[in-house]
Amino acid sequence: DTILIPITLAWPDSALSPSPTFFYFQAGPFLWSFDILMSFVPASLEKEVAAKLQMARKYVCSRFPIDVSLVVLDVVLLLGVLEEHFRIFTLLRLIRILKLKRVLTVFENRLVAAGNMKAVPYLTILQCIATVLAVNHVLASLLFYVGRMGTRIEATSNWVDFYEMSFRTPLSQYMTCFNWVIAEYTPAPFPNQPQNEVEQLLIIVIILTCLPLLGAQIGKIGGTLNTMKEKARERDMVRRDLQRFLQRKNAPTRLTRRMLTSLDDVLDSKDSPLNVKEPIALKFLPSSLLDERAPGREDEREARRPHALLDAHGRASRACWSAQRRVPGSQRGAGREYLHQRAAR
Measured between alpha carbons, how far is 5 from 92 in angstroms, rounded to an integer? Predict the structure, then answer.
């Protein structure tokens, strides 16, 4: 919907039979009607009747009227009874994009539960980039739609006729509109200019919409990159501490390589000491949820925090102990001493 709805608004010929877009919109009302039915499935899976009624009532009183209205709009558009000037209301179907945000949230939670923390920042960055591209896509299509509507009014000048866009291919028209929208982010002038009041109003809307959106998404991407950089810096600092320690103790090259490899395995695991931190969100959760955590384990873990860190470094310590006989004199036990020092910190 995010891609096809704006395109069919600006270029109606793209939805004519027998194109794939035509068949997609033919099946649209059935797909979204099935989506409404599936929204009641979580309520039916509850065991208690009161919980079922509560979840069903929550959906009926919140998203159900909107979903039904959008399905009715799909049917009206499918019947072709809506005049051209009112087809701009087809953009209301883009409200369904809000469902994608919930899907991404669930997907991100599953990644965290599976211990795949590395993919979460990249997912956030891709989501920000996709948001900017989707908004630009909608505004570019809307820009051409407004210009095309101006061609139906003979007394009004419009940018489509003024710049002879009708003689270009649809791809060239789309790229011109897309570049025009992006140019509104920058102080660099764009060759095309609005030719009537409606087009000028749309340009103002584009500026007021895109600048805050772009700033917010860039800030979100910058914050995510800074977090990734901080974690990488902390990881490198731990690794370099071990390298300097082993170099000062004149540890053999093979032992150094094995210990560094083992340390990398520990830092990449879910039990990495760098991730052993109590989140601040625990202070805001109700005590009933906190009691559901493994009883007694958290207190025991906090009381034995240095030993817990030593357990997290288990692989590195085993590599060091297995190679003790290869290290002469005072160098013996260097890896164990280093691990105890890191745990004491």
Answer: 10
Six-digit token string for 296: 């007694």
The pLDDT > 90 percentage for the chain reads: 6
Classified as helix, coil or strand, 95 is helix
Residues 254 and 227 in one domain: no
The Cα 138–Cα 115 span in angstroms is 36
Report d(CA 208, CA 89) in Å as an integer: 21
101 within a domain of the structure (yes/no)? no
CA–centroid distance for 75 within its chain: 31
Give the integer Cα–Cα distance in Å for 245 and 275.
Answer: 23
Please give the tally of structural domains in the chain. 3
Select from 262, 257, 233, 232 the least CA-distant residue to 243: 257
Q: Which residue has the tokens 């584009």?
A: 206
- For residues 124 and 181, state if they share a domain: yes
Q: Tell me if 105 is assigned to some domain.
A: no
Confidence (pLDDT) at 40: 85
Task: Kindly state whether residues 132 and 224 are assigned to the same domain.
Answer: yes
Mention every residue, 6+ apart, whose C-beta is less than 8 A from residue 12: 87
Residues 223 and 148 in one domain: yes
Q: Is residue 309 in some structural domain?
A: yes
Q: How far apart are CA 238 and CA 267, in angstroms?
A: 10
Confirm if 88 and 8 have CB atoms less than 8 A apart.
no
With respect to residue 112, please indicate whether it lies within any of the assigned structural domains: no
* Residue found by looking up tokens 């908004």 in the block: 135
pLDDT: which is higher, 326 or 75: 75
**Residue 56 lies in domain:** 1-94
- Tens digit of each residue's pLDDT (9 = 90 or more) over 252-274: 888 888 888 887 777 776 666 66
Tell me the residue length of the chain.
Answer: 345
User: 5: buried, middle or exposed (CB in 10 Å: 19+, 13-18, 0-12)?
Assistant: buried
Report the C-alpha gap between 144 and 10 in whole angstroms. 6
